[in-house]
Amino acid sequence: MNRTRCDHTPAWGQLHAAFEATGRAFDVRSAFAADPARFEAFSQSAPHVFADLSKNRIDAATEQLLLELARQSGLAEHRDAMFAGQTINTTEGRQVMHWLLRNPPLALMQQARQALQNVAPELAAVHATLAAMLSFAEQVRADDGITDVVNIGIGGSDLGPQMAVLALDAWVIPGKRVHFVSNVDGHELAAVLRRVKPHSTLFLIASKTFTTIETMTNAHSAKAWFEAQGGTDIARHFAALTTNVAAANAFGISTTFGFWDWVGGRYSVWSAIGLPLAIAIGAHGFRQFLAGAHDMDEHFRSAPLARNLPVRLGLLDVWYRNFHGFTSRSVAPYHSDLKRYPAYLQQLEMESNGKRVDASGVALPFATAPVVWGEPGTNGQHAYFQMLHQGTDVVPVEFVAVKTPRHHLSGHHELLLANAVAQAQALMLGQSDQGGHKHFTGNRPSTFLLLDDLSPTSLGALIALQEHRVFVSGSLWGINSFDQWGVELGKLLAKDVAQRLSSGDVNALDASSAGLIARLRR
Ligand code: F6P
Fold first, then answer.
1. Burial level of 137, CB count in 10 A (0-12/13-18/19+)?
2. Range of the domain at 150
3. pTM of the predicted protein model
């Protein structure tokens, strides 16, 4: 596979020259004035998602150069290597195949059967596990004795299923409550345990590794609580979602749904980790969620780079981060059910691309992942949009809006959509007829993603779109987007500090940590 780091390509230098010549001073308003077809040129449909990129600081020449950068970096080859099941997660020696989790069985594929021959055994295993998991989900849905499902997991074993269950609230089966416990902070588990009864609760212990300290601590406490309340039937009330079935069995859980080391934690909502979602929306809904994502996979795999939405978004990310120097991206979902979508994207982007060395371990001379943050609109407007409009930093905003609501309250949705469009407009147009405190510079970039409906299918497509755009920038940056060594040091030190907190031994510690430990023990 030919993979060349972006800064080692001729296009990189040309982009720097283009940035100095026209990019730095680029004004979106003048670009619209000069080109009546700008909206058409910089918007496109992808499966289940329409994207308007026209309010971004980009012109056709720059986009051509960015596409050239992608070609020279070997983006298409890298993408194809992922879809061919090659070991592209080199630092962990793993394939990267979350996409396979949403691939139809080989027998149903019209095309690309040949390309999938390499991974046919894995695809068969995916469908066998999916069938077992969905049949369990249906069993739980039909079981009136189970009213509460408590998912215990953290990071990818929490954010994906939680985001999706909340997003698809309109599809959730009545009579079942789904709770999520992630934090080792006992307040969170205790609050859920106060609200549930052991005989009517199903605990799902979700952990890829089945070693994560927070999840194991919560799982032990949940089991102890269950037994202390007289619960005995662990097989009925506990299930494990993990690649480490042996550890789950050793914990005492016999109902297990597995997945594989080629599914990264933050890419695992499509696997057994999605069981809470499957219980909430049913087997049919879960299959639609997978199908929407698969449609986006096919688009990413086969659309020409110039009309490939994950590619266009990822290239824009590189343009903003490495040329304009923008340090963050704000995510503004104009749908209150997408309340955990920003948190989900934080892990997806920042754990994937928050890296300072390339895949071979060499320090990078340029910036990588931006800070990703946000809140649903219109709430964000009354909190931090002041900074977006008039602050000293330019922050590109990525709006998500949904055309059709799933409620019948008159007037609300029109107002919501009007606000989304108006905010993007205000960011771009600004206001210069009044000076001083009332001056808005404008020319603040935004992207507008539009879904017809917030459904399992469109949510699947939206999430797969985000996964692939993160792949694109990570690929150009030459990093391994699929490891996460940066979380290990803190885990190691927490073990040491936990021992010191109980023993009081602060020997050889830095003075600040020693001082804090002493105060905490006082
Ligand atoms: O600590 C980071 C991390 O490894 C994430 O990548 C992962 O999603 C999360 O912890 C949870 O891990 P597990 O599913 O193995 O408990």
1. buried
2. 100-278
3. 0.97
